[in-house]
């Protein structure tokens, strides 16, 4: 039985769902794959727990019950303040799971944590897009020279293995990737079409249901979808810069626009597109014919079309639900554990 | 597979949960099960009165939100842990955000979401109370485990999807030896929208979990010792019914019996015939089985109800539709001179319905209770 030590940094919705999923499934995983995944440390923004011998299932599930940013209240093994070096000194994790929130201004704290982990010899799995969008080359190079893996399947269509599939299309010349990459704005637009809510009402409903953040600007200004296009561009080997992506705000759509579009047999969608031949990318409001595939992608679903020189593929799935994303993160951890030299 | 023979389900009704003392009291009683080598899955309702108050919150009442806030923060404060107090505040903060986003127009999905906080916070408090009395406990999330259709306000459980979820976690939970606590009354659709299960929904959650996990015993805890032969506010001599069948319980529920939710028997009929115990922490006086032995057949409950402005008396019990029992009832009525508007019974149903004149239902009820339940012995 191969034993893998994991440190989880960032303990919000996805972090908790990841730890809970692991606690509930790791017995089955160890029987199935012969790997024993130990969580040796968890950190949130204000504190951390470190247990070099690994937290047991009960402890992991109890940790998921602590209040927001309240890991320091856990009692045993918990302390106030976060010191990633202390985690590595005391527990020497083999895999670093970086689940801190995205900060597109600086990439922090994700970028520093990821580089630190790589320098200390840990493979990295992350769902945080910002460090990759801003420092993809640096991170990948750091991993490459140390023969470590950096996995980030959960960053685009987090509930699906989309990125894995895209990166496996190695013989293809990818010409275009386009689709609905942001679940929050797609939900808002669906509400506007189906329940005839205006943008503000639909946004408020999305916030009430926990689909939109209290500050939804990253989603509605197209920044989140643009960040995903950047990651896609790196994966297919045709990198673009986020500042070069043309973005429109979904907030400018009125209920009248929706009604006009419907009268004309269209629906309004917020479409992110990367033209890898022209090397241009955009996140735009588009009128899509009602019988178009994208018109059927509603609610929190995501849908992407990949056009290569050889084929055209559609990929539809849940975007970023915490449970689905946690499973994708766990899939990355399992893959690293199975393939890595850790 | 882990040993599940010691698993059972206990539903703690909201009428029992009034303050921190009642959460501790419930926890101490759960502890007795644990000390008896049982591992109960606790299905918890919202604290008393909270669901109705949350329905007002869903209509935009700030005062009602403040009431929920006060009740739950006081219980959390009195239970003592800073961690749980903060946790409850976090939940209330989310509730507040949702409640304030409700602006005009009835939205059943938002109403269900708002109402669900009654059970969500109650669960946190129950887990804390269990730990205060020295019982290891864990939260389960009904919105991840109980899958329903999208009929907001009266959703029906998708048994297959729910069974899949429960099966996946049960072994892990059993291996932690911690008492799992789950919210009753709430669930979620396949795509994650919160739903509620309608009146008596916590019983339905409890029996569904028991039936889907094939557990033998379900305890539905309320403030009375069991189901009574009649409404004690009308008939002071009403006594506890010791054994009933599912069919009798469902028939009684159809005629409006309190403390029985007809939906709760559906999973038991379909998947596994768990024994349902109804009563208080002091005494689980009523046992409900799928099939009752022959000697237990006969009248169990008598009640009155009004349908289409016509009052009627219902006598519930397997075997009451046979000719000799019908004759007995007819004889009692005939001898007492009660004016009957109609009498209805079918061989396949465990009931006799006697339509009486308006104003005479209570006296007839008392007469029949005395003759059938009291003078037999």
Automatic annotation (TrEMBL), chain B:
Keywords: Kinase, Transferase. The keyword Kinase applies. GO terms for biological process: homoserine biosynthetic process; lysine biosynthetic process via diaminopimelate. One of its GO terms (cellular component) is cytosol. This is Aspartate kinase. It comes from the Archaea. Signal peptide: none annotated. Belongs to the aspartokinase family. One of its GO terms (molecular function) is aspartate kinase activity. Residues 7-270 form the Aspartate/glutamate/uridylate kinase domain. Pfam families: AA_kinase.
